[in-house]
Amino acid sequence: MSDAILQLDKVRRSYKTAEAPLEVLRGADLTLRPGEMVGLIAPSGAGKSTLLHIAGLLENPTEGKVLVGGQDCSRLDDGGRTAVRRTTIGFVYQFHQLLPEFSALENVILPQMIAGVSRSKAKVRATELLSAVGLGKRLDHRPAKLSGGEQQRVAIVRAIANQPKLLLADEPTGNLDPTTAEGVFKTLQDLVRNAGLAALIATHNLELAGRMDRVVTLKDGILVAA
Ligand code: ADP
Ligand code: MG
């Protein structure tokens, strides 16, 4: 177990509602090891985003443990979670969440500088990464001037710019037409494979999920093999 990058141990998460609390996760277990690419498939409302947010240290579970690189992160405060997230985890959202006022290049430079990399080094790496995913001629474009597929490529590159060990993606192709989705998935897969990352990718696309190492689903708040 010690080589696990991500370990979820009986993770529970409930939300307060006007009526009884809504129990979304009811004891979810998962172990992700380096190089593993795992698909997460479940209907809308099943708790995929909740699970990814907890795995990505964007929020804490109500109960249970979240270990990232062997470190128990389940009771860290915001600052502690942010510190682990910055160095270890990359996150790709369904809607790119790029900074609209900044170019593609700046969107990839900034998170590196926040992590302490010099501007000149961050620029070299951002240029290389964006060029490698076919965006070498789009470096100075703002997100609004890019296509949906290009925006997601920038978002993926941004997520891996700080060389995380774990990549989490929440329906990264959910907003794209099938052909574009295929291309973006291929980009994601190549980057994950080349970097030897562990990745957990929520998707509605069964065909893409079938090309991952294994697929899990959420059933009554518990993760089971799909
Ligand atoms: P999925 O990503 O699989 O569609 P979510 O994790 O977004 O599922 O949501 C799971 C359930 O939890 C849904 O019923 C949703 O309405 C509810 N939910 C999610 N976030 C909150 C929140 N912050 N407060 C209350 N309920 C929430
Ligand atoms: Mg969701």
From TrEMBL:
SMART domains: AAA. One of its GO terms (molecular function) is ATP binding. It holds the Pfam family ABC_tran. It comes from the Bacteria. Residues 6-226 form the ABC transporter domain. Gene3D superfamilies: P-loop containing nucleotide triphosphate hydrolases. Keywords: ATP-binding, Nucleotide-binding, Transport. Belongs to the ABC transporter superfamily. This is ABC transporter ATP-binding protein. It comes from Lacibacterium aquatile. The lineage of its organism: Bacteria, Pseudomonadati, Pseudomonadota, Alphaproteobacteria, Rhodospirillales.
